[in-house]
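Sanity check

After download, print the first record. It should look like this:
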Amino acid sequence: MPLLARHPPHRAVVTALAACFALGLSSAPGRDAAAQPDPTAAPEEGGEALLLEELARRGARIGRIDIEVQNVFDTSDPEESKRLYRWANRVHVTTRESVVENVLLFEPGDPFEPRLLAESARLLRSRDFLVEARVEPGAYHEDTNTVDIRVVVRDGWSLSPEIELGRNGGENEFGLGVEESNLLGTGKGLTVSYTTDVDRDEAYFGYSDPNVRGSRARLDVVFANTSDGDRISIAAGRPFFALDTRWSAAGLVLDDERVEPIYDLGETIDEFRHQRRAFSVEGGWSRGLRGDRALRWLAGVTYDEHEFSPAPDVPEPLLLPQDRKLVYPWVGFQLIEDDFRVMTELNDIGRTEDVPLGLNVKATLGFASESLGADRRATLLDVAASKGWEPGRGQLFLLDSALSARREFGEVRNAILSVGARYYHRNLEHHLFLASLHATGSRRLDPELQVLLGGDNGLRGYPLRYQSGEHRAVLTLEQRFFTDWYPLRLFRVGYAVFFDIGRVWGRDPRATEPAGTLADVGAGLRLTSPRSSSRQVVHIDLATPLNERNGVDSWQLTVETKRSF
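Expected structure tokens:
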């Protein structure tokens, strides 16, 4: 089975369009009748795309837009025509059609552009409360030269009680709360929860609105009261919501107070209080999509202040970071290519996934100065890039990288370079092999940061935050198995076997000498629900270290949720 699993052509649509062209083009002067499309023939590969492009070339416009919002369960399916599923559909508030309309990139009367259908479908699928979305042409009206559009979306179960019982790297986690990602069918999100983990206890309230009052503006608000501080975050603005968007504007206010722990061998060896206050405003301009690329120019101003003080339990930290305040204007750009693939059974089970393969580069350069209120002169650089390839049938290669650095007092500080590479190969009929390499290098890190290696960042057979250094590399080889087991039509089940190997090198002055190369082997169960809007995959992994050091347990059990298989 190929890795790429595009949606099959809509046979009725293609046939209808072919018939329209057969009638409409047969009277064109100089056209050979023998060259006309056969409306009864099955479309050749790519035939639908050719017909749609021909409609666009002829100047067709969008006609009627029909929106169909399907409920969580398809009760017309005998497997789902049961009391439990009918009850769930009755109590679930389906997404309002206006919410779907606000995401679409076209309106009735707009020029017909096939690209916008595919991009609108991607934007709809990116909303957590929708588990599936199709945007496809319907009837073509030759007399008005218009194309009707059919939009079909399926809701996910958006009201989720949050009960988290997790274990990661030998530490337990607990959470209790409720999350509604589609409040009363409006597409707005609301989360109230209480969690406790190795770092802190937290009471959390979050609200998000991706289309404020039906506009393209969005709002995200977070209030959190923690056992070691508080956090307030308010972000609002109008993003580059589509490839052809011409401008953006955004603002952020952040106030975050916490106790920062420093780790070695999975234990806290130091801690200090860290308060951060940040404010930023930014904007962007673009000429839109030119060919298959969009170039965006960015600019903004950022205020970023960090204050450090001893924590109540550790009045004399081993290393207390110095306060810093950076106030700087910055400029940048983003180059993004329109190249996406629709795939399944890659990082999830039973869901459509949109994988970007096009080049995406974003870079910003800022200049802090005492005259603007900063406590130093500094130059700040941030660069991120990603690209994907399909080297062969059933194969996929994704590469991403990021670099951030700050030059001050005549030297480079807090420089962090990260590189990630993932290779997927469809094998064993419809299963998947993954090879993943992630590497991080640093130079003169700010003291509150660590480059860590352990159960929470790739080495599942060891305690979390087990080793610390300046550089890290982790290689994972994983064979993923996707099953057809679908208990109660609620959960999809998969499993994996894996091998992890990694190391840190370079010295963190507060930690022990790195132990060299560490490796583990293990197996795990994967559970996810295509019915749920949470898009979480439950990982239950059992791994054993192949290099036992410093009393590491022979087996590590990890139970956690991730956004990926």
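If your output differs, re-run the checksum step. Summary of this record's structure: DSSP finds five helices and 27 strands in the chain.
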